[in-house]
Amino acid sequence: MTVGTRIRMLSVVVLLLTTAAIAGSRVTSQAHAHDSNVYVARWPTTAGPLDVVFQEAQSVSNLSASRRTAIRFGAAPWNALETSLNMGLGPALNTEPDHKDCASGVNSLHWQAIDGRSNPTNGSGTILAQTWMCYVAPWPGLGEQVYRMLHAAIVYDRDENWYFGTVTPGSAEHDMRGVSTHEFGHFAGWRLHLSGVCSSPRHTMCPTIPPGTNEWRTLETHDTHTFRGAYP
Question: Checking CA distances to 231, which of 6, 35, 50, 141 falls within 20 to 30 Å?
């Protein structure tokens, strides 16, 4: 099989630590990109606007309506930018497809155990969610680092202390809507995290988020510029 047709898999393991907000003042010269630098892959929108469908695996579709709404909330802030990519909800699944299976043909949301509840004392259980991507050879003209997306799946850690509501989570709760927004950024092919903009306001695509905040629900300047750079 040639390099041009080889399917690659990337596991984007997002460490969303439960410790206090990242120390340090906001940097005015930001490390961000408006092009392909943070995108290891993109959905194929070169021929025009594209609707990418995601579906709830059985582990999600079995949850209450309010929880499901929060879990899939994250597509909406990105879709509101009205770019060439739209991430839309498809029919719920009655199966639990392998989220690592590049040949499944299903972009899915999952509610599974990852590493247990976050524990700031001993550092165990610090992954709230993770996104898996499958992609193929780079597109001509987009640079050697930009691949074509084939498949994506988001897994939320069911063992965490989640907040599914619409206001501010409790001091020990993780905001599902905010984490969902972050993960749908990865779903679009965004691999690397922003840096230098992770104090106040904390950009959605920063690598960590403490409990008790809903900051990630709202996209900030470099979130939107970077996304629009990848999907005009």
Answer: 6
The Cα 212–Cα 201 span in angstroms is 15
- For residue 225, give the 3-state DSSP assignment: helix
User: Pairing mode, if any, of strands 162-163 and 127-138?
Assistant: unpaired
| Residues of the chain falling short of pLDDT 50 | 1-36
Cα of first residue to Cα of last residue in the chain, in angstroms, is 33
Domain-embedded: residue 95: yes
CATH number at residue 198: 3.40.390.10
pLDDT, residue 196, reads 81
Question: For the chain, what is the domain count?
Answer: 1
Contact yes or no for 32/222 (Cβ under 8 A): yes
Per-residue pLDDT of 64-107, as tens digits, reads 999 999 999 999 999 999 999 999 999 999 999 999 888 888 99
Domain that holds residue 97: 8-230
- d(CA 76, CA 107) in angstroms, rounded, equals 16
Q: For residue 186, tell me if it sits in a domain.
A: yes
Environment class of residue 24 by beta-carbon count within 10 Å: exposed (0-12), middle (13-18) or buried (19+)?
exposed
Q: How far apart are CA 153 and CA 112, in angstroms?
A: 12
Q: Encoding tokens for residue 167?
A: 């206001």
pTM of the model: 0.84
Residue 2 lies in a domain: no
On whether the CB atoms of residues 35 and 229 are closer than 8 A, the answer is: yes
